[in-house]
Amino acid sequence: MKALLVPAGGAAGFIALWWLAVLLRLADPVLLPSPLETFNDTAKSFTQGPLLHDLWRTVTRTVLSFLVACAIGVPLGLLLGAKENVYRAVEFVVDFFRSTPASALFPLFLILFGVGEGTKIAVAAFGAALVILFNAAYGVMNARRTRLLAARVMGASPLRVVFDVMLWEAMPQILVGMRSGVSLALVIVVVAEMFIGSTDGLGQRVIVAQSLFESGLMYGVIFVAGALGYLLNLTFLLLEKRFIHWAGK
Amino acid sequence: MSAISPREAALSVRGLRKAFGGVPVYDGFSLDVKRGDILAIFGPNGCGKSTLINMAAGLLPADGGEILFDGRIVDEVRIGYVFQNYREALFPWRRAAENIRYPLRRMGLKRAEIERRLEALAADFRVRFDLNAYPYSLSGGQQQLVSIMRALAVEPEVLFLDEPFSALDYETTLSLRTLLQQVLKARKTTTILVSHDLEESIVLADRILMLTRRPTLVADDIAVDLAWPREAATLSAPDFIAIKARCLDVFTRAVAGA
Ligand SMILES: Nc1ncnc2c1ncn2[C@@H]1O[C@H](COP(=O)(O)OP(=O)(O)OP(=O)(O)O)[C@@H](O)[C@H]1O
Ligand SMILES: [Mg+2]
After folding, report:
1. What's the rounded Cα separation, in Å, for the pair B258 and B254?
2. Chain mean pLDDT for chain A
3. Smallest Cα–Cα separation from A139: which of A87, A89, A94?
4. pLDDT digits (tens, 9 = 90+) for A46-89
5. Cα–Cα distance, B43 to B52 (Å, whole number)
6. A33-243 has which fold?
C-alpha cells in the first residue's frame, strides 16, 4: 500500500505545482493551460476526437516494429553469441549503429522503403533489433560453461544446446534488451509520426495540436505518450520478475 | 594390481598426451579401468585430474593417444558426468525432475520408460524432497543428488564424478557417499571418481590411482580390497588403516616430497 501511496503523492505534488504556476500566471495561459483544462481537452479528444485511434496506431506500430526487431535480434544475437569470434568481428559495426541516432537514418530508410508505414516500422525495428541483438549475444557469451558442457555430455546436439541452454542462459539479458528495445521503438515511432508522412499516431497528434495552439490537448498527448512508455517498461519488468524466476539464484 | 584383460576393460587410455600452452600435463599416459570398478583418482592440485576425465568424457580434445570405451570412442557410448559445481551444472529453469528427464529425452526414450527410471532412481536414493521443486530451492546436498541422478539416469557405461562432494558439508557428504556406493555397486556402474579426500577415495573405491605432479604419471595404483558395503566401522578397520598409511606414504614421497 505504502509502495503505491508514495509515488501517488509525488504525482499529486507535481499537479499541485503545475496548478500553482497556472494560478500565479507564471506563463501565458495559451502556453500553459490548467491541469483540469488539459484533462478535459484530452478526454474530449479521446471520446469525440481522433486520440483513441492515434493511440491505437502508435501502439500497433511500436508493437509491430518490436516484433520484427525480436524476430531478427534474438536469433541473430544467439547465433553471434554462440560464435564468439564472429561476434567480435561484427561488434564494432553493431556498436556503431547502436550509437547512431536512429532519426539520422530516416532519409536513408525513406529511399529504401518510400513514404509510408514501412519506413516508420523499419527504422524503429532497426534501432530496437540492434539493442536486442547486442543483449542476446552478451547473454549467450556469459552463459555458464558448465551448463553447456553438461548438455553436451547428456547428448544434446549443437542446435539443441543453443535452444535448451544458451537461449535460457541468455533469457534474463534478452528481456533486458527487449525492455530497452521496446522503449526505443516507441521513441522512434513517435518521431517518425511527427515528420515522415503521417496522418495519425501520437506523434502526429502532438505536432498538430501544437500548430493549432490546442495546448491543452498537446500536453494531454504528451502525457498519454509518457504513460504508454511507462506501461511498456513496467510490463517487461513484471515479465522479467515472473518469467525469469531463477535469476540470481 | 593384476593386469586387466582388454575384454574386462570398460575404459582404456593409451599413450595420452595433452599440453596447455606448450607445458605438458600428460605425456604418454595409460590406464585401464575394469568394468564395474570404482576407480578413485587422487592427486595434487593442478596435476590434471579434471583434464583427464574431461578428455575421457569428450569435453576436451586430447593432443594425442587414444581413449576407448570397450573399443568405441566416447561419441558412441553413454556416459554420465557429475560436475563439482552443482549450482552451475543443473538447469535452474527446469524443475529437478525435468533435469533428470532431460538426458532421457535426448536418448529418445518412451515416456513410460522415462518415468520408470525416474521412480527407480528416487527409490534407490531414498529421495524424500519434492522433485517438482526448482533446483535453487533445494539444499546443496539435494542439488548434488539431483545431478547424480541425472547422470545415472542414462544408465551410463562409465560415470565420471569430479569432486562431487567438495562443496558439501561433512554430514551431507557422509550420507550421500553411503547412498552412492550402494547404488553404484547394485548397478555395477563403472565409475571414475576424482577426489581430494583420501578417506573418501578409500571408502568409495575398488582401486585408487595416485598421481604425481605434472607431467603426470601414476605414482601408485592401489587395490582396495575392503568388503562392501563400507560403513562407519570400515573407517577404523585394520585393513582400511593399512591402505590409508600406504597411500599417505606414497603421497609424501611422490607428491609432497618432489
Ligand atoms: N583450459 C586451460 N588452459 C590452460 N591451462 C589449463 C587449462 N585447463 C587446465 N589447465 C592447466 O592444466 C593443469 C591441470 O588442470 P586440471 O584442472 O586438470 O587439474 P586438477 O588436477 O583437476 O586440479 P584441481 O585439484 O585443482 O581440480 C593445471 O595446471 C591447469 O592450470
Ligand atoms: Mg579439477
Report:
1. 6
2. 91
3. A87
4. 899 899 999 999 999 999 999 999 999 999 999 999 888 888 88
5. 12
6. MetI-like fold (1.10.3720)
Nearest to B149 by CA among B195, B173, B184: B184
ipTM for this model: 0.90
Q: Is B92 on the interface with A (CB under 8 A)?
A: yes
Strands B64-68 and B9-20: antiparallel
Judge if B194 and B248 occupy the same domain.
Answer: yes
Q: Do A154 and B59 touch (CB under 8 A)?
A: no
Verify whether the Cβ–Cβ distance A155 to B91 is below 8 Å.
no
Compute mean pLDDT per 10 residues along chain B, 258 residues long, and list them: 72 94 91 94 90 94 94 92 92 96 95 96 94 94 95 96 90 90 94 92 93 85 89 87 91 70
Predicted TM-score (pTM) above 0.90: no
Burial class (CB in 10 A: 0-12, 13-18, 19+), A78: buried
CA distances from A150 to A144, A175, B21, B79 (A): 10, 25, 25, 11
Question: Does the residue B176 lie in any domain?
Answer: no
Spacing, Cα B49 to ligand 1 middle (Å): 8
Q: Of the candidates B58, B88, B106, which has its C-beta nearest A144's C-beta?
A: B88
**Ligand 1 midpoint to CA A64 (Å):** 50
